[in-house]
Amino acid sequence: MTSYIALLRAVNVGGTGKLAMEDLKAMCEADGFRSVRTYIASGNVVFDAGSKKAATLESAIEKHLKASLGYEVSTFVRTPDEIDGVIGHEPFPRATIDRAHALWIAFLKEAPGADAVRKLNALRCATDDFHVYGREIYWLRRVTSTDSKIAGSHLERALGAPLTARNITTVTKLAAF
């Protein structure tokens, strides 16, 4: 068995995508996952599974969610080592991060291509900056999300792919969960 962390897109955010975490836990257990536990209500689940392929696990969770909820929920699976690598990467100087409002990590299924990175970088502005590292986008937010002109949907359009974002505090807690 290998441990995994699954991050679900647009679950329990802004009054949409309602999914009780106990229902998510039960669904994952029904799929044969072991030691299933959820962390906060934004669609984070940690589990053990026999499969060694993240794409297989993502697909299984997505199919079950679509059957249960009636709509698609993009799912992004990482191993604890991958999450540790995300946390350990230094996308911006420490002083810059400390002065910012927040550092968010956007998770993608695949690393973005050069054209997508170019479109993402075109979104850089005084309030928001981005750094691409593998399948993750580090999003430095110098202001609150309500004061920023950039939203996750802007990133998805630029990248041409769905994503889900978590602040660095949540990602760090998931790594220790």
Walkthrough of the structure:
The structure is a single chain. This protein has helices at residues 21-30, 54-69, 80-88, 94-99, 114-121, 152-159, 168-176, and strands at 2-8, 34-39, 44-49, 75-78, 102-107, 128-133, 136-141, 164-167. It has a four-stranded antiparallel β-sheet with strand order 2-3-1-4. The chain has a four-stranded antiparallel β-sheet with strand order 6-7-5-8. It has 177 residues and is an alpha+beta fold.
Name of the CATH architecture of the largest domain? 2-Layer Sandwich
Q: What number of domains?
A: 2
Give the CA-based shape. Answer: globular
Unreliable stretches (pLDDT < 50, length at least 5) are: none
Based on DSSP secondary structure assignment, what is the total number of beta strands? Answer: 8
C-alpha Rg (nearest Å): 16 Å
Helical residue percent?
A: 25-40%
- Which CATH class of the largest domain applies here? Alpha Beta
Strand order of the largest sheet: 2-3-1-4
State the distance separating the first and last CA atoms.
17 Å
Structural class: alpha+beta
Order of helices and strands: EHEEHEHHEHEEHEH
Main beta sheet, described?
4 strands, antiparallel
As a percent range, the share of strand residues is 25-35%
Rounded mean pLDDT is 92
> In CATH terms, what is the fold-level topology of the largest domain?
Alpha-Beta Plaits
